[in-house]
Amino acid sequence: MVAVALFVREPTDQDPVYPTAWQTITTDQLPTAGYLLVPPPGRYEYLVVAWIGAGGSIFDLTSWVELGVYPDPGDPDDSGLVEIVEGSGVFIDLEADFSLVPPPAGPAERGR
Predict the structure, then answer these.
(1) How many structural domains are present in the chain?
(2) Positive or negative, the Cα torsion across 70, 74, 78, 83?
(3) Domain assignment present for 18
(4) Per-residue pLDDT of the chain in tens (112 residues, 90 and over written 9)
(5) Quick check: is 13 in a domain?
(6) Domain for residue 28, yes or no?
(7) Of 25, 59, 91, 95, which residue is the least packed, with the fewest Cβ within 10 Å?
(8) Model pTM?
(9) From CA 35, how far away is CA 50, in angstroms rounded?
């Protein structure tokens, strides 16, 4: 499963914040899926597209594989700031690198 999630700040092992808003996307909607998040007005510092492995959860950040982060326009190596104002919308074009998705786990090959 793929998720698009919005956080007030980037989660870390020491500060495991949870997403304020998210949408999951099924794999049959890929590679070009639209999404609509409706978070409360505020300042969000981390917008991410992540692969959530089998048995994982939107709230189990250890099961996530980060595929793309909304970049800061001034510093693409840093995450960008998203500000939501009451009564307004924001369009964000977010890219994801699906080559980072781990291969599916399955039975070992037989007869080699």
Answers:
(1) 1
(2) negative
(3) yes
(4) 888 888 999 888 888 788 888 877 766 656 565 666 778 889 999 999 898 888 888 888 888 899 999 998 889 888 888 888 888 777 777 888 888 988 876 544 444 4
(5) yes
(6) no
(7) 91
(8) 0.76
(9) 13
